[in-house]
Amino acid sequence: MANVLAHFLAAYIVLAGPWLGRYWFERARKRIHSGAPNAKLQLYRSLVIEQIVSGTAILVFWRLGQIPAASLVLRAPRSWPWATAALLALVVALVWSGLKLRPKAGRIREKLRDGVGTLFPDTTGERSWFRRISIGAAISEELAYRGFLLYYFSSYLPQLNIPEKVLLSAVVFGLGHLYQGWKGVITTGIGGLVLAILYVSTGSLLAPMVVHAVVVLRVLLILPPEALQSIPAGAAA
Asked: Which of 30, 116, 126, 223 is deepest in the core (most CB within 10 A)?
């Protein structure tokens, strides 16, 4: 049972996930740009549900397969001082870069509004839901791409060494964001590589989860609620 579920989860993450994500995103993007009421909130709610389902599936696999928590790296970091130092350095760098980009909020929205910018929140209610999907993405995606996928590679592709598994997981993570276009695939692939290295070096999912959440929440720092007002009227229309 555990083997069947492992192969099913791997097939979904590697093969089906990228294309389903792209299909759902394009459908939501059209609804949002058509002016459908609450289209963006509906997208956020569906994303939260998907995150709960995917995260639960990984945990069910862990329990049904009687897999030690350490195998999915569901444990504390090997070295708290090292993990804390690395975490603080990355979080400070992300916050600093977000503050530096804030004056360009209007241009960023305009540049990305027909693509991944569709996901950016505008209202207070949308920003509240965006916080939830940011935390949900950090938990569910780290469980899937770092916890489960690296465990799967170790169990079913034992000929791969650690750098190869890390690189492969980063490629799969990038492809999982196919809805952002190929430029987004490359960017998130590089981000996935950093998260995988952080995961391997600390021996825990805790640090990559926190960094992942900060990366997504950084959107709220770069684009404050009033950022929409800085877009030219014609562009906003």
From this structure: 223
